[in-house]
Amino acid sequence: MIPKSIAIIMDGNGRWATERGKDRSYGHQAGVDTVRRITSECTRLGVKYLTLYTFSTENWNRPQTEIHALMGLVLSSLEDEIFMKNNVRFRVIGDVARLPKEVQDKLHETEEHTKGNTAMTMVVALSYSARWEITKAVRDITREWKENGKPVEDITEDIVSQHLETAFMPDPDLLIRTGGEYRISNYLLWQIAYTELYFTPVYWPDFTEDDLHKAIESYENRQRRFGKTEAQVDADTPNR
Questions:
Q1: pTM for the model
Q2: Is the pLDDT score of 232 beyond 70?
Q3: Which residues belong to the active site?
């Protein structure tokens, strides 16, 4: 079964460029081309949500030249007709207020322009980190509970989920990380509690449709138990 929701940590752009004697920004540009291809393929396969880790809150510590190049790429990539061509809705999650005003305006414009598209939703995590997101949710819940005099015992997992940036979408079924690293890097920590993880050494600019198919095939060959035993899952799905 094709996963309904796929999240990707698009790693390896800088190393890909460095190994070719190029500036790191060259790798990020190549990575945008991969985004176009993988977005089209996910839409064709029937994936409903594709969430891409584009720029973390920690990335603000990178050299200003690289940050400036990345912001320029964000602007140029949002001009892409891939959204309308593939009937893809665009959404953004993260601390958008930290972004340059020009980028903020373009993000909101693209969200508005594509809101009627229904084939798939592409979610871009921009100026995002899971710890920032969870901290913000705690503050928002605390403020709401204090203003309304609600007992803290009423705070449930569902309440927390409803106050996260991703409240509008399901948790990822599959998380893919390219580039050969084996870590989550502060990405969707709450949401991936039972997500299937797939790591590949392939750098993001080299990640092809065939690599995506391999990740999905790995996912399809796993049994998602969500805390149950294998026998319980088999009993719940007799046609498996």
A1: 0.92
A2: no
A3: 11, 59
